[in-house]
Design brief:
CATH class: Mainly Beta
Order of helices and strands: EEEEHEEEEHEE
CATH topology: Cathepsin D, subunit A, domain 1
Largest sheet: 6 strands, mixed, barrel
Radius of gyration: 15 Å
Strand order of the largest sheet: 2-3-8-4-7-6
Number of helices: 2
Distance between the termini: 14 Å
CATH superfamily: Acid Proteases
């Protein structure tokens, strides 16, 4: 069963997210917060560009998001594949948006990734399990 551990005393659950580049030739491993309150997965725009994705394409669909500083519009970018907690989703749409540097992470793992699976969080033990939904 795919699982990861985290510090149960911490203020958030941080997991690794492996994103495949646009051409499929490389990938990046990013620390992200597992966020069941986020509808969509969010990744730093700068890192998406490093992976070969173009968030500035005029035809790129934009998503309205509410942040601590107001309303912004972030590009919706389909990535070839995203892997977290031992599970992969192909053609996952992510929002290109930079979180504050003090967050210490490169994005959020949202429901559009998690809903493909059954998610179990054992808060007292600091364990996250993710299995294919039946």
């Amino acid at each position: 069963m795919p699982r990861v551990t985290y510090d149960p005393a911490g203020s958030s659950i941080i997991v690794d997210l492996l994103l495949e580049s646009e051409d499929g030739a490389s990938s990046l491993l990013l620390p992200v917060v597992l966020d069941t309150g986020a509808s969509l997965t969010i990744v730093s725009t700068e890192l998406l560009v490093r992976l070969g994705y173009d968030p500035t394409t005029p035809l790129q669909q934009r998503q309205r998001i509410i942040t601590g500083s107001g309303i912004e519009y972030a590009p919706r970018i389909p990535v070839r594949s995203a892997t977290a907690i031992g599970q992969t989703v192909r053609n996952l749409e992510v929002l290109g948006h930079n979180l504050p540097p003090e967050s210490g992470v490169d994005g959020l793992l949202g429901l559009n990734f998690l809903r493909h699976f059954s998610l179990t969080i054992r808060f007292r033990k600091g364990i996250v399990e993710l299995v294919k939904a039946r």
